[in-house]
Here is the input.
Amino acid sequence: MNKLREKVRNLLKEGKVAGYVGYMMRDSHPLPHFFTKERLEEVDQAIAAPDNARYPLDKLLQQVASRYPEETFAIQVRGCDERGLNELYKWGQLDPEKVVLVGVACNQAQADYCECPGPWTSVIDYGEKCQPVMKSRRVAQIEALGEEEAFKEWLGAFQKCIKCYGCRDVCPMCFCKECSLEHPELMSTGLVPPDTIFQLVRAIHMAGRCIDCGLCEENCPADIPLRVLYKKANEIVKDLFGYEMGVPESGPSPWKMLGEESTLETKPM
Amino acid sequence: MPDTNFEPKIIGFFCNWCTYAGADLAGVSRLQYPPNIRVIRVMCSGTVSPHHVLRAFQKGADGVLIGGCHIGDCHYLRGNFMTIKRMRFLQDLLKFTGCEPGRLHLEWISAAEGPKFAETVRNFTEKIRKLGPSRLKLAVRAA
Ligand code: SF4
Ligand code: SF4
Ligand code: SF4
Ligand code: FES
Here is the structure.
């Protein structure tokens, strides 16, 4: 932890960043905290988030950065948060020149729980690399069901939705000003559970953009396995377009451009 | 028991410049095709969002047929590059969730392809008739 605190302290002291979005223990809860030069002593309380401290720091950073567009900020990131930043740069929501990473590597238990293919960051200031999980067992379980059974599974899950929008509101990658989930021409209004297509619409929006942080699923009061749906959506995007979310080298999202050529074939009837 | 009175409800999204003109040609050539299709004319197949397709299924469509210009012939040059990306993606997502991906079909039909238009609508209607009412529709109705 000392290495992490030292880095943050120096960044703030030397004025390299206007603030640091990280975590602090408060009333024995690890909570997101905005650290500044003016309250430098708080950095002694700065922590790397323990596994169960799961907050959308990328989202908080977007709010701070849009308020102070000229300033540079530091932010604590895990693998998923860094993927999120990379994706947000591509979508023009953050300026990579104005972000400094404080990286945390997740432990094996966390990576296994998340089925995470990249449980560490490009700079590691806390923790050590563990084994990534390259294949999702949860996705494979659904695929093994057969379509009719899969439909029953999903339908059962979707019907538990109370339309709280928690999945969207917590998501670091949901930055639209107007949301299709609330568009009266696209989605019935005043219904709980919502239209059966509610989660599918969200899956479309998250395809190739969801950074698989799992916050939506953890936030969902109805325990809908949302992460499985978006993991698969990302997988489809990778298979069809060769696009890997969160990776700078993947270039722009396939949804952001038409492309120079079209090699996909229509499916036979 | 299969519903013998089942008449599939099919929504067609056709681009103005190719497939819709192909439908016109099929019409003036007096080619027969089943009347189960309700056509929505769009300026380019690239304007059809997966939302529209899902909305159609939610509202009780048994099948959705998208028609656009052949690759290279889109009047907006590359609009249909997006069409195929979206529809291929959506077909795979429907498959994963057990929502019968075969009920969504994309076909490139030019303004000159009246017979292909009639044949596509015929074949698709028959396919959907065999599949019966959509799983999603039945679930919506039951709720
Ligand atoms: S997805 Fe899970 S394991 Fe991967 S970086 Fe994020 S918290 Fe760590
Ligand atoms: S896992 Fe959920 S919260 Fe995280 S990026 Fe994906 S959709 Fe958003
Ligand atoms: S968080 Fe869960 S219950 Fe709330 S809207 Fe999303 S899927 Fe529905
Ligand atoms: S104009 Fe026909 S597909 Fe674009």
Notes: DSSP finds ten helices and five strands in chain A. The radius of gyration of chain A is 20 Å. The first helix of chain A runs from residue 2 to 13.
